[in-house]
Design a protein that fits this description.
Number of helices: 4
Radius of gyration: 22 Å
Helix content: over 70%
Number of domains: 1
Strand content: under 5%
Oligomer: single chain
InterPro entries: T4SS_pilin
Largest sheet: none
Structural class: mainly alpha
Number of strands: 0
Keywords: Membrane, Transmembrane, Transmembrane helix
Pfam families: T4SS_pilin
Shape: elongated
Length: 126
């Protein structure tokens, strides 16, 4: 049980490190500069509306989630291949590794179909 918890914590740490760049949205200027220039535009006392809308935010979130699932797929394939290599001829371990790889491929097919549906919908909504 302790080994499983350790593997899960390592997996979560790796996924976190790989997904972290998706959450870095670098601005062209600092927030204080934008606050100082908020009332100086030609739109009166209010700043211009940003092009970031709810639909684009949802699109970014869904794209990040699908990318995360792709990373999880790669990790599962690598873990399954490693388990298969380390099976040492033990048929039970080989079948577990094959099952893990088959499950990961099924997950990849589902992820790709979800991405295809999202790409189809986003072309009409966004």
């Amino acid at each position: 049980m302790k080994k499983i918890i350790q593997q899960i914590s390592i997996l979560i740490s790796l996924v976190f490190l790989l997904v972290l760049p998706y959450f870095v949205f670098a601005a062209s200027s600092s927030p204080l500069d934008r606050l100082h220039s908020a009332g100086s535009g030609s739109s009166g006392p209010y700043a211009e509306a940003s092009p970031t809308t709810l639909s684009s935010i949802v699109g970014i979130v869904i794209s990040a989630a699908l990318s995360l699932l792709g990373v999880v797929f790669v990790v599962l394939i690598v873990l399954g291949g490693f388990k298969w290599m380390m099976a040492g001829g033990n048929e039970e371990d080989v079948s577990k590794a094959q099952d893990r790889i088959k499950t990961a491929v099924i997950g990849l097919v589902l992820t790709l179909s979800a991405y295809a549906i999202w790409a189809f919908i986003s072309s009409y909504v966004l």
